[in-house]
Amino acid sequence: MPFNLFRKKKPEEEAPAAPQQPEQEQPQSESVAPLQEPEPVPEQVQTAVAEQQVEPTKEESMEPESPSKTYLKAMPLRELNDLENVKNEVTNGNIIILKVTPLAQRSIEDVKTAVNDLYQFAENTGGDIARLGEERIVICPKTVRIWREKTPKPAANEPLPTAA
User: What secondary structure letter does DSSP report for 157?
Assistant: First the structure.
């Protein structure tokens, strides 16, 4: 019989219940004292605890707060003016996947200019940038790194391995 998580137990499968014994009242001994309420904490102790709150150090308070959420956004690059919007998004902590095909259909020189500009921006802000295929670029803020697979370079004298 397969296991069924929601199967109800049959009466014969249930464990026999322990015989019910009537509860007998036990006489209370006079030596046991009833529970007492705890004494209230004096006001002096309460104020001393409140004064011990830890203030953040200068180093902690000087760091800019990181955004609470990081978003992955995809957007097209239609013209060079779109670069400011991309830079603002990366500065705000978002990851941008930028499709450069719309701009490439107009001018390859503009694509080169845009990529060089974004590369300099990523380098200056401590972020990361990489190509995704032929028509996309990913730009990350300084809190995110792009993993790149290291491929070993073949030795000059060794032939390349084949599938056959």
Answer: S
